[in-house]
Known about the structure:
By secondary structure, the chain is an alpha+beta fold. The protein has two helices and four strands; from the N terminus they run βαββαβ. The longest helix has 11 residues. About 25% of the residues are buried.
Amino acid sequence: xxxxxxxxxxKDKLRPGDILGALTGDAGIPGKQVGKIAIFDFQxxxxxxxxxxxxxxxxxxxxxxKGRALKVRII
Length: 75
């Protein structure tokens, strides 16, 4: 698994379901390949399978989560 860091968090009203929906819907990643989602005040972390990490990052960066374009990076 690889961790993606999303530049939004609880203060931005981001929920785990929003991240999971963006990954499974817009990015087209199966839900079984998404791991733990941790949301903090100003950032969120989500584990995805290593083989799909780059694809997930590119699709999330080009798409929107909860109607807003957010920065996503791999750690």
